[in-house]
Each structure stands twice: as structure tokens, then as C-alpha cells.
């Protein structure tokens, strides 16, 4: 029997943009177990809901994460709107959908860059992040902020897009899409990428479901589950279908995200083509009383927002179950049997967001 | 597509059998949420199957212990440790149990309502 040893991984590591720690149990260089540990950046943002007016809290919710900020604001607002029985105007739903799809493009491009960097593929990293800058510029033009957008509010959105802005988005995504295609080709065809990702970190469909995987991690294991199918926002009017792969490995997770980028371009085009005229918000009267669970599909997967309100302007509880919280247990399973040298890449393939997870 | 989204209240005695039944029916665990109420806690365990979501709602007194479901749903360990550490919910036999060291924070049970 090989000698067992424990190797600490993280919280500071070149491939980790945020701190997470793993105790890796090794037999020679094969991982036979892993114990995850978080807790370096807990901020207690959920607790702040007891001290902020429920109409102010979207500003806090979107600061949970710098990548899915628009979605966090949206999830919170949707939960409060459901409790207060507020019908959000159609135009606001379309605007929200356009912004969250832009967030998905932003997030996936960021992840692709990190993956390329972890593989030592510097030019691919720079190409991915160069395109990401264009998405951030689009956010800047349409919301006034590159990272924190402050567009969602209870009852709708705060900012509208005129036809010039919508046309700018169409031409920008056309430009980005044309420049992305060679990058996609490299990720899917290049020998270096394939040799690092194919057959690495296999997570079977059964394990993915039973261990609670969500998002691209789940869909890359062959399960067609995408919360956008529930039809929240403008998705009820758009052609959205879950993108899956049945290879169940790291390459499959990369492939799913690449195809989701192309899907997001199409969804934005469709939403801009169908966006109705009209108001972008409705007045909110009174205070919420009740509770509700909302699910939305963030770039990293299903996120669940829970709001419990007591009839005052301060809420009793806001809870966010992030995609990374759900993807850590399957990641631990996936690491078993892999080589130590593959651990950084495999951790990256779940696209961990520790900032969201610790809140 | 509409997904069911319902909350079912359940007693402490009926909790564990209900979770076993969810597992047997292939529901996946999607979230665990603790809320402080007047004299204890309200625990919500949400399960999903297809696009339906069902939440089992359990009310416990401050000193009552809930059995961990990590032996049925191993993926529950992070959220159970979080409920125990941030709220002070007593959850027995979590696997693995971080013993209030999941988050590296100085204050004990910071989310518990203080007098």
C-alpha cells in the first residue's frame, strides 16, 4: 500500500482568484480524498437585511459578488416582488434579461481566461480577457458601472436603454462573436487544451445529481437542467434550451460554457428584437409580509434566494444559496483518483466563486 | 414551464423519515436555510426534482437537536455546518463536522438574535 500524506492546497494559490483551502489526502501522487475549507472572507451580508430598508437592500445584494452582481440584485428583487404580488412591466423583464445574459458572457469569458492561464496558455488567456473588456464596456455604457450596475430595484429597473444603446449592443456582440469563434476553435481543438482536460475530473450523471451539482457542472454530466426554463424574466418569450454534454469531464464543462456563450448572444439578439415599449418600473406601496424562494440561473448555475418579511420595511431574513456551495461537494468527489498536478485545473472547472459562497 | 414551489411543515419526529423518503424518490437537496424565530429556529430543507421544488419546514426549540442529514445527503455538510456556526442550531453528527470553524470569525453565532 502506498504511503499516505496530506498536502495543503490554498488558500493562496496561483490559480485561485479567491481563497479556498483543501487538505488533499494523497497516495503517492494520486488524490484519494479532499477536505474543503472556506471562511477566509465571510462578510455577513445576509445579516444586513435586518438593518436596511428592503428597497435599499438590492445595493447590498449585488455586492455579494463582482461577477454575478446583476443576478443577485435580480434574485432578491424577484423574491420581494413575489411576496408583494408586484407585476413587473414587460420592458423591465426584457432589460433584466439582457443584462443577466451580458453577465453570463462576462463570467464565462473570465472563466475561460482563468482556465487558459492555469494551463499556461498565456495568449489564449489574454484573448479571452480582451473580449471580456468589451462586455464590461457595454455594461459601462448601459448601466454606468462596469462591475456594480445598480439597475435592479423592487418593481422593475432603474435605467432604460434607448434604441441607440440597443443597436450598440447588437453591433458589439456581433463584433465579439466574430472574434470569439477562433478562440472557441482553439479551446475545442487545440492539442494542449485537450491533453489537459479530456478524461480529467470525470463526474458521472448519477454523482452530479446526487451530490447536488448545478449549472455547467451538472449539464456537462448530461443532465438538462437550466432554471431559465422556468421562464422568469423574459425567458418565457425566448428560445432557451439547456446545453448539455455527455462526456462528464473537464473538457465537457469547457465545451458547455463555450456553447452557452453563443447561446447568450442569440438570447440577447432575440430579446432586443422583441423588447416592448412601456414603463420600466411600477410604484411599490407598503411593506412586504410573507416568504418566498426564488431560483434563477446564474452563470455558475442555479442560485436560490429566500426572503422572509414581517410587514415592516426591515426583513427578517435573506438567504442566498450560491452555485459554488452546491458545486463544492461534487468537486471533492471529482478530485478522488486524479493526479496532484491536475488538482488546480479541476478546481477551476467548477468555476468557484468564494466571495458569493461566503457572502 | 411552471415548477412547483411549495413549503410543507413537518414535525421533528417526522423529519428524518421524510428526508429518507425524498431521497428514495430521487429528490436532490438544493438548499438548507436557518431562520431565528422567537424561541428557536425555523429550518427549511429544499429539494428539487425536475423543475419542482419542495421545502420541508421544521420548527425546533433553541435547545432541541436536529439529526444531520449528511448520512442521507452527503452534500448537506457545508450548509449544516453554516447553520450551526452562524445561528447556533444544534445539529448532531454532521459529517464532516467543522466544530464552528467553517468560517474564520471571532463572534460566536453572529446571526442568532441577541437579547
UniProtKB/TrEMBL annotation, chain A:
It comes from Candidatus Mediterraneibacter stercoravium. Fe cation binds at residues 68, 356. GO terms for molecular function: ferredoxin hydrogenase activity; NAD binding; nickel cation binding; oxidoreductase activity, acting on NAD(P)H; quinone binding. It holds the Pfam family Complex1_49kDa. Gene3D superfamilies: Cytochrome-c3 Hydrogenase, chain B. Mg(2+) binds at residues 46, 320. Keywords: Iron, Magnesium, Metal-binding, NAD, Nickel, Oxidoreductase, Translocase, Transport. This is Nickel-dependent hydrogenase large subunit.
Automatic annotation (TrEMBL), chain B:
It comes from the Bacteria. Residues 27-91 form the NADH:ubiquinone oxidoreductase 30kDa subunit domain. It holds the Pfam family Complex1_30kDa. GO terms for molecular function: NADH dehydrogenase (ubiquinone) activity. Gene3D superfamilies: NADH:ubiquinone oxidoreductase, 30kDa subunit. This is NADH-quinone oxidoreductase subunit C. It comes from Candidatus Mediterraneibacter stercoravium.
Amino acid at each position: 500500500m502506498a504511503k499516505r500524506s496530506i498536502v495543503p492546497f490554498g488558500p493562496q494559490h496561483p490559480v485561485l482568484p479567491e481563497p479556498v483551502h483543501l487538505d488533499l489526502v494523497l497516495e503517492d501522487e494520486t488524490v484519494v480524498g479532499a477536505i474543503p475549507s472556506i471562511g477566509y472572507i465571510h462578510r455577513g451580508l445576509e445579516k444586513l437585511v435586518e438593518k436596511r430598508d428592503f428597497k435599499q437592500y438590492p445595493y447590498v445584494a449585488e455586492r455579494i459578488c463582482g461577477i454575478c452582481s446583476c443576478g443577485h440584485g435580480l434574485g432578491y428583487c424577484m423574491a420581494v416582488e413575489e411576496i408583494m404580488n408586484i407585476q413587473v412591466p414587460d420592458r423591465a423583464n426584457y432589460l433584466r434579461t439582457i443584462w443577466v445574459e451580458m453577465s453570463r458572457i462576462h463570467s464565462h469569458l473570465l472563466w475561460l481566461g482563468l482556465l487558459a492561464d492555469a494551463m499556461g496558455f498565456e495568449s489564449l488567456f489574454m484573448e479571452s480577457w480582451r473580449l471580456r473588456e468589451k462586455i464590461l464596456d457595454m455594461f459601462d455604457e448601459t448601466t454606468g458601472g462596469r462591475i456594480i450596475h445598480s439597475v435592479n430595484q423592487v418593481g422593475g429597473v432603474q435605467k432604460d436603454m434607448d434604441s441607440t444603446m440597443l443597436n450598440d449592443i447588437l453591433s458589439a456582440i456581433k463584433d465579439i462573436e466574430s472574434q470569439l469563434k477562433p478562440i472557441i476553435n482553439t479551446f475545442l481543438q487545440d492539442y494542449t487544451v485537450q491533453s489537459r482536460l479530456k478524461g480529467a475530473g470525470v463526474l458521472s450523471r448519477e454523482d452530479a445529481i446526487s451530490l447536488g451539482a448545478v449549472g455547467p457542472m451538472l449539464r456537462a454530466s448530461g443532465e438538462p437542467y437550466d432554471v431559465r426554463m422556468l421562464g422568469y424574466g423574459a425567458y418565457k418569450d425566448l428560445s432557451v434550451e439547456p446545453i448539455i454534454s455527455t462526456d462528464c469531464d473537464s473538457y465537457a464543462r469547457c465545451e458547455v460554457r463555450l456553447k452557452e456563450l453563443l447561446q447568450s448572444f442569440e438570447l440577447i439578439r432575440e430579446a432586443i428584437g422583441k423588447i416592448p415599449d412601456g414603463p420600466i418600473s411600477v410604484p411599490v406601496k407598503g411593506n412586504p409580509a410573507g416568504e418566498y424562494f426564488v431560483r434563477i440561473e446564474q452563470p455558475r448555475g442555479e442560485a436560490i434566494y429566500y426572503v422572509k418579511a414581517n410587514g415592516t420595511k426591515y426583513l427578517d431574513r435573506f438567504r442566498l444559496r450560491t452555485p459554488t456551495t452546491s458545486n463544492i461537494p461534487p468537486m471533492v468527489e471529482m478530485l478522488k483518483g486524479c493526479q496532484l498536478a491536475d488538482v488546480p485545473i479541476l478546481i477551476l472547472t467548477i468555476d468557484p466563486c468564494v466571495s458569493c459562497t461566503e457572502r | 414551464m411552471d415548477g412547483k414551489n411549495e413549503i410543507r411543515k413537518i414535525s421533528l419526529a417526522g423529519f428524518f423519515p421524510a428526508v429518507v423518503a425524498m431521497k428514495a424518490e430521487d429528490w436532490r437537496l438544493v438548499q438548507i436555510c436557518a431562520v431565528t424565530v422567537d424561541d428557536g429556529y425555523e429550518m427549511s430543507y429544499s429539494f428539487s426534482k425536475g423543475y419542482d421544488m419542495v421545502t420541508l419546514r421544521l420548527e425546533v426549540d433553541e435547545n432541541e437537536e436536529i439529526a444531520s442529514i449528511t448520512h442521507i445527503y452527503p452534500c448537506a455538510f457545508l450548509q449544516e455546518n453554516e447553520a450551526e456556526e452562524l445561528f447556533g442550531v444544534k445539529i448532531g453528527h454532521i459529517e464532516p463536522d467543522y466544530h464552528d470553524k467553517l468560517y474564520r470569525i471571532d463572534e460566536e453565532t453572529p446571526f442568532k438574535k441577541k437579547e
